[in-house]
Specification:
141 residues; mainly alpha; elongated; VTT domain-containing protein; VTT_dom; transmembrane helix; membrane
């Protein structure tokens, strides 16, 4: 059950939902009832899959930009595209960061970033974050 809770929180946290998978992971690590390797693996998989949803939404988002209910102005959308174009796929290394990470993955889809490159870089970034949290838990920093 703890793995499912972690997966759902990590998946949701990677979308635009305000969830905290880090807190769930740290709580489960402190409780010590689950294998840390599997916790990090489950958190990474959930978070990466949530980012893949963002990428897919980014692919489809332009179809809706002219709708009245669309939450982002065309100017802001263009600005985000220009920033991504400037830094390219390297910006996906920041996909783990709060606030800007989720929109970066969405913009990557909008910019039609190659999915396999997207998946590799996002997995490195998100997995690295969870490994860093585990290292903090172990007191290595």
């Amino acid at each position: 059950m703890s793995y499912l809770l972690l997966f759902l929180s990590a998946f949701g946290a990677a979308t635009l939902l305000p969830l905290q998978s880090e807190a769930v992971l740290m709580t489960l690590l402190v409780q010590g009832r689950s294998n840390p390797f599997y916790l990090i693996l489950v958190a990474t998989i959930g978070n990466v899959l949530g980012s893949c949803v963002n990428w897919w939404l980014g692919l489809k988002i332009e179809h809706f930009k002219d709708k009245k209910w669309f939450p982002v102005s065309e100017q802001r959308l263009l600005q985000a595209q220009q920033i991504y174009h400037k830094y390219g796929f390297y910006s996906l290394l920041l996909s783990w960061t709060p606030v800007i990470g989720d929109p970066i993955t969405l913009i990557a889809g909008l910019m039609k970033e190659n999915f396999w490159r997207f998946l590799l870089i996002v997995t490195i970034a998100k997995g690295g974050r969870y490994l860093t949290l585990y290292a903090l838990y172990l007191g290595l920093f």
